[in-house]
Each structure stands twice: as C-alpha cells, then as structure tokens.
Design a protein that fits this description.
The complex is a heterodimer of chains A (250) and B (119).
Chain A lengths: L11 E8 L2 E6 H21 L8 H21 L7 H18 L11 H23 L17 H48 L1 H6 L1 H37 L4
Antiparallel strand pairs in A: 1-2
Chain B lengths: L6 H40 L2 H32 L4 H21 L14
Helix pairs in contact in B: 2-3
Classes of the chains: A mainly alpha (250), B mainly alpha (119).
Chain lengths: 250, 119
C-alpha cells in the first residue's frame, strides 16, 4: 500500500548555499510557494491591465475576492482595520491558493507543514503586539485587565487572560496545519484501500472497492470545502486579533 | 346573591369554562405555530460560512489553552525548581483559559479588555 505520509516529504531541488554550516536549499515546498505567489500576483495584475471601465468576467471575479476580504476586514476590525487590508488579503489568497494546490493530485500541500502555519500565525501575532504597543504604548496591556473585576481576584483573571492570549498563535496555526494534514492522510488512506482490494481479492475486490471509491469522491468534495474554509477562518481570526491591537480596552 | 346555587347557574358556569378553555387552546395553538415558523426561518439565516467557521474554531481553542498553560507550568518547574506545583497550577489555569477561549469564540463572553455591560 502507498505510504500515506509520503506525500508530505520535502525534497531538495537545488542547494543555494550554506549559512553557518546549515544548508539553504530550494525545496519542492519553496517551489510551490513561489508558484502560488506568481499565480496570485500574475492573476491580479492580468485582471487589472485592461483600462475598460466596464469589468469583464475575469476582472469581476477578482473584484469579488477583493470585496469579500474587504468586507471581512471591516466587519472584524472596523474601518480603522483597513490599513491592515494588504496583510489580510495576502494571507487569505496565499493560504487559499496553497490549500487548493494541495487538492490537485501529485501536488505538494505546503500548508500541511506546521512550520509554515506557525510562521504565518507568528506574523499575525507579532503584528498585533508590535502595532498595539506602538499605537497605545502601555495602554495596550489593558487588554489583559477586564474592567469591573474585584481587586482580590484580579491577578488570577489577568493570568488567565495572558494564557488565553498566548494560546492564540498555537490554535491559529494548529487548526490550519492539522486540518490539511489529517484531510490529506484520510484521502490517501481511503484511496489506498481501492488498490489493495483490487489486487488482493480479485473480482470480489473490484466490487467491494466501489465503497472506498465512493468515499474518496465524497472526501474530495469535503476537502475542497475545508481548504477554502480554513483560508477564510485564518483570515477572519486575523481580523479579530488585529481588532484587539486597534482598540484595546474599550 | 347568596343562597343555594341553582342547576341553571351550574350549566352556565360549565359553558363559560368550556368557552374559556377553547379560547386558551386557540391562543396556545397560534403561539406554537408562530414559534414553529420562526424555527424554520432560523437555519436559513445561520447557513453562512461564518457559522461553520465558528464551529471549526471551538475544539482547537480549548486544546490550545491547556497546552499553553501546561507549557508555562513546565517551564516554571524547570526554572524555579518547584516541581510539580507549577505544572499543576498552570494546567488548571490553562483549562480555565481554554474554556474562556471557547466561550469567547462562541460569542457568550465579551472579548478581552471589554466588559459586557459597556457594549
């Protein structure tokens, strides 16, 4: 049976050099990230190249994505949050395209590696902390002090709020990576059953093999939904977290 | 109008009771129909991606709180050498933080830094 983990293996394509004894290699993961960025940037540039004031079908599609993300930012972080629109749009389109790349057979799923998800979540986390302190100074720490709490349980509540805040990058990144990883392994395992049954049981196996085949088709549809939904959840939570940096302790 | 009640009064009373009962039944029936209509209208409103996105958040939010709490406790144990008290206390605090995360993502508790009554 095909190894269901094999698809996540990182392969070296070319060595770019060494930094302090650590090899810096161009991997298949990096190649797919490049491809995603090219597709997004190229696709949007191509859509805006026409000067026709009436948008065509293709440009309308790009505008719908823009409007979708802009609405999400306005809802999550308010009108002031629009200064973070480039960040949210980049994250959303990057994760969406990488997730959908993963749905194409034979393609590498970049977002199924926790290092990528953690890096993206830490970008958001450090942005929230950095912007919060820059904009509000020590006032930002009011985020951890809910108003109207009796003084004798305040230290406990602050401690809980701090743990809750620190758990954000963890849940933010683990949700994305775990959903993609688990989904792809499940898909691969069910697809593997078909080959095993057909080779192992002969004609009877072909008949029974229809069950995992149907399951694989259904799971593919589900995974497509999860791929889009996870990109949406990641971007939506980014907006909610940025809202805390913009308005701490209202 | 004191005195023994006549059979005529009794029949009048039962008739009135019956009429009252019928009106109450009709009112309750109306109310139930209204509620049913509202119930059937609600799922359509909740069928946007935000509801599904919210549901997907819940489990990971809870686990993240406990893991981070446990991690902090473990680090305190290593640094301060008070094992196992750091772990015990901070896993419990992490549990509380995880529950808070879940309630917050379900929209049942005010977001951080805000009190409910001010909203």
């Amino acid at each position: 049976m095909a190894d269901p983990i094999h698809q996540f293996e990182i392969k070296k394509i070319a060595t770019l050099g060494h930094v302090g004894g650590v090899e810096i290699a161009f991997t298949n993961s990096a190649a797919f990230m490049f491809a995603a960025v090219m597709l997004i940037a190229g696709g949007i540039l191509l859509a805006t190249v026409s000067r026709n004031p009436v948008p065509g079908r293709y440009r309308s599609a790009v505008e719908i994505i823009y409007e979708f993300v802009a609405d999400m930012v306005r809802q999550g972080a308010g009108e002031a949050g629009m200064r973070f629109f480039p960040l949210v749009f980049t994250l959303f389109s990057f994760i969406l395209v990488l997730n959908l790349f993963g749905m194409i057979p034979g393609f590498f799923t970049v977002t199924s590696h926790i290092i990528i998800a953690v890096a993206l979540a830490l970008i958001v986390f450090t942005t929230v902390i950095g912007y919060g302190f820059k904009q509000h100074g020590l006032h930002f720490l009011k985020l951890f002090v809910p108003s109207g709490i009796p003084i004798y349980i305040l230290p406990l509540v602050v401690l809980i709020e701090v743990i809750s805040f620190l758990s954000r990058p963890l849940s933010h990144s683990v949700r994305l990576f775990a959903n993609m990883l688990a989904g792809h392994i499940t898909l691969k395992v069910f697809a593997g059953f078909i080959g095993m049954l057909a080779t192992g049981l002969g004609v009877f196996g072909f008949v029974v093999g229809l069950l995992p085949l149907g399951m694989t088709v259904a799971l593919t549809a589900l995974e497509l939904l999860v791929a889009v939904l996870q990109a949406y959840v990641f971007a939506m939570l980014t907006c909610i977290y940025l809202n805390d940096a913009l308005h701490p302790g209202h | 109008m004191a005195g023994p009640r006549s059979p005529k009064d009794d029949t009048e009373l039962t008739a009135r009771l019956k009429k009252l009962g019928e009106r109450l039944g009709a009112l309750a029936e109306n109310e139930r129909r209204d509620r049913d209509r509202e119930d059937s209208a609600r799922p359509r409103a909740a069928a946007n991606p935000a509801g599904l996105a919210r549901a997907l958040r819940l489990s990971s939010e809870f686990v993240a709180g406990i893991v981070v709490g446990g991690l902090i406790g473990w680090l305190i144990d290593r640094v301060a050498g008070v094992s196992p008290w750091g772990l015990i206390v901070f896993v419990l605090l992490g549990f509380v933080a995880g529950t808070l995360n879940v309630l917050r993502s379900a929209g049942l508790v005010a977001p951080p830094g805000r009190s409910r009554d001010k909203e």
